[in-house]
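User: Can you predict the 3D structure for this chain?
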Amino acid sequence: MRFMLKDKIIYFFLCYYAIAAADESALSFDYTSITDKASPICNYYAFRFPFTVGNRNVTVTNISKSCYCIEAKSEKDKYVSGTNGSIEGILDITGKTGTVTQYLLVETYCNNQKSTTKLVVTITIDEILKIKPHILHWNPKKASVEKTCSIRLNPNYAKEIDSIKLNDAIFSFHIEGDKKDANKFYLKIIPKQLQQDVHELLILKIKTKDNLVRSFFIHLLIK
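Assistant: Here is the predicted structure, written as structure tokens:
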């Protein structure tokens, strides 16, 4: 059955007001994304997404997460119209560097309608130190030669090299400081014997500015 012009106009306004009512009664977030920097000596980044409730009561029915490393909750489940609230949480950044992005999906119920809002957290984490390369490889069929890893401490976070541990039955090492850069070192490693199929870890322990010790690893391969 075709709508007459009058019916179409009425239908249009009914749809318009239904959508407007839904929009007004939904949660209105101050912002839906956070972009920030975090220290690598911190294990967690805390965040908050404040919102205002529209002209109808709203229930937060669920908050789903993009990863187990992010936790969040609302202050309560049910909010009265015209009030304020927030979604608060933490992002686990332990041992992470570079840019980390995770998100939440906040599901709400209002005026017999369900809606979902995506909240995004993007954090850039600096490095405590730079190691290059992370893997040293020797061919057991060739002569044993000394190989070098460069290590540069980030003075904003790293205090000093605390200790270096490796399997000294197979490898030996010594460390030299850079003549121009007090935060740069050269770790020189050589196998005592070239055995077949060796995979060892050199453990580099760094004391940070907060006097904690963090471990970093260099892979030593003979194969």
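Helices lie at 5-25. The chain has two domains: 28-125, 129-222.
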